[in-house]
Write a structure and sequence with these properties.
418 residues; alpha+beta; Outer membrane efflux proteins (OEP); 2 domains; 4-stranded antiparallel beta sheet; two-stranded parallel sheet; 10 helices; 6 strands; 7% strand
Length: 418
């Protein structure tokens, strides 16, 4: 899934061949051909990607489980007395018994299930932010592809110009055929890289469409800023968010609340739920009628749920330690990404301020000098290759910068990025 980042996407193979963005989108959107900005792609993913309605359905299911957990058991037909069929001495009984939960057991069961529903709500947010992060990663990959094609197109033109200059020198008797070979190789190599980049762009567009949930949507250039005005992140704000407000932290906190409720539930389990209810007996012979009231319950002398209570206490402790582990893990990710982002930003700044301007100026001077035979072929090729490499390294640095920036935005779980 595009350069090492993946998320569950709609299964394109299961879709009908005609089920594309052109058939899924409303007519107004199909006809407009509006610019494909990052914000618009995110809005479309919110509307069309199946992972979000799936998670909403899971929330609804969890809420249903919570509702059911708080409901009392149905009364049962039970007289606690046998039916007697013996001619005139026949005695028939009718009655029911109802289990009466004590010590707030049903309330505790429902509270624990409510925490599970809360976890599902946070899972929805988690999946949404993961989806947005993947879309943003792929969006900037497509931007990078578009920028790389622009740069390679310029390089092809420059290298072709160098080759043509060599041909002019050859015509004037100032260069041999062998001198043109490395120039031609460099030019054709750049052409090959350009063609490969164009094919890679087509593939990355398809992946971006799949991530949005609308196969075939991205059929043209996306619109966005790839260089200049880079985002600024503040480490203290990131640290505070990932340790207090991140959805993984919220889920872990909900699990702690759930296990504490379950511990209390385990502690009250030994208190027996009585079964009670009225019963009535009647017979064919007058005088057999009688009425009584049943009450039954277990006597907690052997099983006082010792193992269940111990297990519940262990679950509480484990969930508390898991929260700390999650916070440390998120902090580790944040510090790693901040370091990568700041490093990439420093590299990009150096390229934009010094390296690229110097390389462009040096290449023009080298081309002029080679055309006038004041520079030998080996030196000219060295300058030419260094310029091509500088542009390639600059694009790689930009890729690293935006990859780190998008992942930081994912850690901050930003609804809007750029």
């Amino acid at each position: 899934m595009g350069r090492g980042f993946a998320i569950a996407v709609c299964l394109v193979g299961l879709l009908s061949p005609t089920l594309t963005a052109q058939t899924l989108l409303p007519p107004a959107l199909r006809e407009r051909g509006e610019p494909l900005t990052l914000q618009r792609l995110e809005e479309l993913a919110d509307q069309y990607h199946p992972i979000l309605p799936r998670d909403r359905a899971q929330i609804d299911a969890a809420r249903g489980v919570a509702t059911q957990a708080g409901m009392w058991n149905n009364p049962r037909f039970d007289t606690n007395n046998p039916q007697v069929f013996n001619g005139r001495n026949t005695a028939l009984n009718a009655g029911f018994q109802q289990e009466i939960p004590v010590m707030g057991k049903k309330r505790l069961d429902q509270a624990a299930s409510n925490e599970v529903a809360r976890q599902q709500e946070y899972n929805l947010s988690q999946d949404r932010y993961s989806l947005l992060t993947s879309i943003r990663q792929q969006f900037y990959q497509v931007l990078s592809d578009q920028r790389r094609i622009q740069v390679l197109t310029e390089m092809v033109e420059v290298l072709e110009k160098s080759y043509r200059a060599g041909e002019e020198l050859k015509k004037g008797g100032l260069a041999a055929e062998i001198d043109l070979v490395p120039l031609r190789i460099e030019w054709r190599r750049a052409v090959g890289n350009l063609q490969a980049s164009e094919r890679l762009l087509a593939s990355d567009r398809k992946q971006l469409s799949d991530l949005v949930g609308l196969p075939g949507l991205v059929d043209r250039d996306v619109m966005g800023q790839f260089s200049g005005d880079y985002p600024i992140f503040y480490e203290d704000q990131i640290n505070r968010y990932v340790t207090q407000q991140h959805t993984q932290v919220r889920i872990a906190q909900a699990v702690i609340a759930q296990t504490k409720v379950q511990l209390r539930r385990a502690e009250v389990e030994p208190f027996p739920n009585p079964y009670m209810g009225p019963a009535y007996q009647y017979g064919l012979v007058p005088g057999l009628e009688q009425f009584w009231f049943n009450i039954q319950f277990d006597i907690p002398v052997l099983n006082r749920n010792q193992g269940g209570i111990r297990a519940a206490r262990g679950n509480v402790r484990a969930s508390e330690e898991n929260l700390v582990a999650i916070q440390y893990n998120l902090l580790n990710q944040a510090h790693n990404l901040i370091g990568q982002y700041e490093s990439a930003r420093a590299v990009v700044g150096e390229y934009e301020k010094n390296i690229l301007p110097d390389s462009r100026d040096g290449l023009q001077k080298a081309l002029d000098a080679y055309s006038k035979r004041t520079m030998d072929l080996a030196t000219f090729l060295t300058v030419q290759r260094s310029v091509v490499q500088a542009n390639s390294d600059y694009l790689d640095a930009l890729n690293n910068l935006w990859s780190s920036a998008v992942q930081l935005a994912g850690l901050l779980q930003l609804d809007r990025f750029r």
